[in-house]
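Hi R.,

Here are the chain sequences for the assembly we discussed:
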Amino acid sequence: MTKGRKRKSGSITEQIFDPATLEKIVGWLEDAGVDSIEIETEGGRLMRIEAGIGASSDGAGRDPDASVSQDGARPAKAPIAGHFLPVHPAREAAEATIGSAVLAEEIIGFVGLGPLIMPIHAEDAGTLNDCVAEPGSLVGYGDTVFLIEPAQ
Amino acid sequence: MIEVLQTGPLNTVQDLGRFGFRNAGVTSSGAMDRLALSVGNLLVGNDKGEAALEVQTFPFRLRFDRDTTVAITGADCDARLDGRRLPPWWAIAVSADQVLELDTPRRSARAYLSFAGGIDVSPVMGSRSTSLRGGFGGLEGRFLAANDRLDIGGAGTFALPPHGFGAKPPEAALAEHFPTSDDGTLLVRAIPAGEYALFGAEAERFWTQTWKISSQSDRTGYRLSGEPIRLASPVELRSHGVVPGVVQMPPSGEPIVQMSDANTAGGYPKIAGVIDVDLWRLGQARIGGRIRFVQSTVAEARAAERAVQAYLEDIRSTVPMLGQALAGMVRR
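And here is the predicted structure of the full complex:
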C-alpha cells in the first residue's frame, strides 16, 4: 500500500508532504495567484506552503512579526483572509488616518470576504503610524495591516 | 427586551409587509427599505423577514435589557454602542445595559435595527408591521415613544467576532445592477402604466425632467414637484387597485409615487410603475432629494431582482461559515 496517498493512511501532515500532493497544491496556488497558504492540522501543527518555494512547518520560514520590532510599533492584524478595505464601502472617509490617535479596541480598517466585512481593530490606544497593506490587496489571517505607536 | 430611551415620531416596528388583505382595504405596510431590513436580519442569524425597527427620525437611543445580537443597516447613522463607534451595515453582540445611539444620517433616510430572534410583537393578519393608518400591528398600532419596552424573541446571541462584522452594502455589492447619475440625482427605473398613453407627447417629460421630493412625502407616498404634466384631455376614472410603486398623476400634474403604506385603491391616472426592486432606493431618498425616472423593462427588472436575491443568498450562506472559521481560529 502506498503511504500517504489514501485517506487515513498517515497523518494529514504526511499526506500534504507527499511530493505529488505538494506539487498539486503549489500549482493551485499559482493558478489562483495566491502566494502562500497556511494549513492547521489536527495536532495544531501549522504549515505554510508558499508557491515557488515549497512547504515549511511550524512557522519556519515565517517572518514572525517583523513589525513589532519596528520602533516599538504594535501591529493591527487582519482578522481573516480577504481583501483589505481601508475605507468602509458605505463611507467616504477612512475610520482612522495616518498620524491620528486611535483608541483601544477602535475599528480602524476592514477586510472584505465575499459579501461580508470583518473589522481590523487596534489592540491598544496610540497613534496610527503606518498602513502596510495596499488598498484592495489580499491579506492573510494574522497579516499586519497597520502599525500603531502605543500611547505612553 | 429592549427599552426605547429617546425617539422622534414615526419610528415603527416593520417586517416585509402584510399581504393578502388588500381586497379588504388593508395596506401592505412593511419596511420602506426591505433590502436593508433583510440584510440586517440575515446578519443576526434570523430569517430575512423578521420584525425590526425602522428608524426615520433621530436621534434614537435604546437600552438592551439582556444579551443579544443587533444589526444596524440602511442609512449610516454613525451608530455608537456605549459611546464606541460602529461601522454602517454592522452586526455586533451586545450585553444587558448597553446603550445604542443613532444620529441623523447625512445621506439616506432610514435605518433598520434587527435583533437576533426578531421583535416579538403579536402578528396581525400574518405580519408584525405597524399600520399607522389602520392603528394596528407592530407595537399597539402606533409609532414608538420613549420608555416603550419591546420583547425580542429567540435565545439571544449567536457566535460573532468580538468587534462584530458587517455586510457589503447593496450600493457597493450590487453597483452594476443599479444605475447611478453623475450629478447625484437618484435614478429610479419605471415601466409605463395603464393610462400612460393618455398623456400623449407630455409623457416624454415624465422621463426627462428631474423631480424634487416634496415635503408632503411620507411612508404612504412621495409627492414630487416639477414642471406639471397634464392629460391631453381630462378623464374620469373609476377607482382601481393601487400598489406600492404606482406613480399617479393627479390634476396638479405633479406625480405621486405610492410607497409602503400605499392606499389600496385610487382614481388618479397611472403614468408609470416603479419596478419593485428599485423601491428600496426610493425608500432611502430624502425629502428635498432629486430623482429622475428611467424607462425600464420587465426583463431588466427581473435581472436586477435575481441579482438582489443572489446577494441575499450569498450573505445568508456565508454568515454561518464565518462563525465556523472564527471558531477554528479561536482554538488555535
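Residues 2-168 of chain B form one domain. DSSP finds five helices and 21 strands in chain B.

Let me know if anything looks off.

Best,
T.
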